[in-house]
């Protein structure tokens, strides 16, 4: 399929009611309002297509950009591709999810994430922390730099409350991810969460709430799922 054919399909699948929900959650125009379940059907047909994904992302239409993240061949994504995607991300949903997911599953996630979290730009820094959260969820512990993760937890503890709005939100997610997926760091993540305390984030005109990192990790612990890795961070 071509990007033009998929764009026509996406436009037809758009629903005004869902578009309103997306706009209320910070998605910016242009957007058709296609539900993820409909994108999944296209993903199932297309499977992986690097070039098509790049073309779809370049349209600047939110639905196509989100779909691009689902069908791209992550292993072929270059650092330039990922930086380009981040630069074009028009909302937190794209920078913290689509871009971060693809970065985490590419060959460049760790290196880029460590650079991104140092950025003064809120969207770039939040993408970096989200990428790190994704990496600990899918990488075997033997592939992770445990020492660096410890230092990053300390960094969160010291800086989270002084960080920009979306960065605070994703830092909190990072603590949850480390505590849930890296068994040797669960207790340290819980200690970090306790020292950080409640995290306040402006979630806009939505009912979304910031989860308590400690409570979330404890629930994972109660399910006996600590250290259970995911096959993919995409959803």
Question: Overview of this structure, please?
Answer:
The protein has helices at 3-13, 16-24, 36-46, 50-57, 62-71, 79-88, 92-105, 109-116, 122-138, 146-159, 165-181, 186-196, 213-222. It has 235 residues and is mostly helical. It has 2 domains: 1-72, no CATH class; 92-235, no CATH class. Helix 3 (36-46) packs across helix 5, helix 7 packs across helix 9 and helix 11 runs antiparallel to helix 12.
Quick synopsis:
With 235 residues, the protein is mainly alpha-helical. The protein has 13 helices and no strands.
- Please work out how many helical segments DSSP would assign: 13
Summing up helix and strand content along with how strands pair, one would put the structural category as mainly alpha
What's the mean pLDDT score?
97
Question: What spatial form do the alpha-carbon principal axes imply?
Answer: globular
Question: How helical, in percent, are the residues?
Answer: 55-70%
How many DSSP-defined strands? 0
Question: Would you identify the regions where 5 or more consecutive residues have pLDDT less than 50?
Answer: none
Number of domains: 2
- Order of helical and strand elements: HHHHHHHHHHHHH
User: How would a textbook summarize the main sheet?
Assistant: none
List keywords for this structure.
single chain, 235 residues, mainly alpha, 2 domains, 13 helices
């Amino acid at each position: 399929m071509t990007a033009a054919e998929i764009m026509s399909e996406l436009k037809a699948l758009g629903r005004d009611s869902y578009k309103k929900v997306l706009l209320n959650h910070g998605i910016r125009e242009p957007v058709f309002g296609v539900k993820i379940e409909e994108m999944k059907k296209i993903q199932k047909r297309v499977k992986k297509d690097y070039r098509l994904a790049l073309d779809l992302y370049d349209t600047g239409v939110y639905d196509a950009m989100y779909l691009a993240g689902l069908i791209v061949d992550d292993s072929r994504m270059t650092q330039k591709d990922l930086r380009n995607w981040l630069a074009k991300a028009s909302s937190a949903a794209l920078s913290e999810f689509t871009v971060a997911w693809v970065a985490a599953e590419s060959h460049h996630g760790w290196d880029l994430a460590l650079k991104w979290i140092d950025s003064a730009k809120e969207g770039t820094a939040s993408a970096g922390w989200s990428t790190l959260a994704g990496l600990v969820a899918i990488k075997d512990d033997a592939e992770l730099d445990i020492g660096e993760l410890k230092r990053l937890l300390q960094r969160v503890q010291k800086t989270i409350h002084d960080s920009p709005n979306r960065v605070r939100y994703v830092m909190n997610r990072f603590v949850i991810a480390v505590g849930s997926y890296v068994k040797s760091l669960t207790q340290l993540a819980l200690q970090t969460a306790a020292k950080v305390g409640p995290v306040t984030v402006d979630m806009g005109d939505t009912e979304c709430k910031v989860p308590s990192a400690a409570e979330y990790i404890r629930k994972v612990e109660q399910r006996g799922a600590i250290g259970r890795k995911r096959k993919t961070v995409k959803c």
